[in-house]
């Protein structure tokens, strides 16, 4: 009797390609809003995607760079405002 198993593999962890795309999107959105939260999340997702061998290596690297840029933008904004708190 022949095996009729599906060719798609099922894993309990996230697919590295999805992590690379999510890293890119979160890094891009983080340049506009919530860069303190989205920058590190984008960096972690990019590093995990690269570690697990994503096929979308370019997006993972861009997500990593955008995550770093998020934190740089935050640092520049805090420096220009001369404060660490967000007061309106």
Automatic annotation (TrEMBL):
Superkingdom to which the source organism belongs = Bacteria
Q: Name the keywords, alphabetized.
A: Membrane, Transmembrane, Transmembrane helix
Q: Does the keyword Transmembrane apply?
A: yes
Report the InterPro entries cross-referenced here.
YqfX-like
Does the record bear Transmembrane in its keywords?
Answer: yes
Q: Which residues cross the membrane?
A: 20-48, 60-78
Q: Which PANTHER family match?
A: MEMBRANE PROTEIN, SMALL HYDROPHOBIC PROTEIN-RELATED
Q: What is this protein called?
A: DUF4190 domain-containing protein
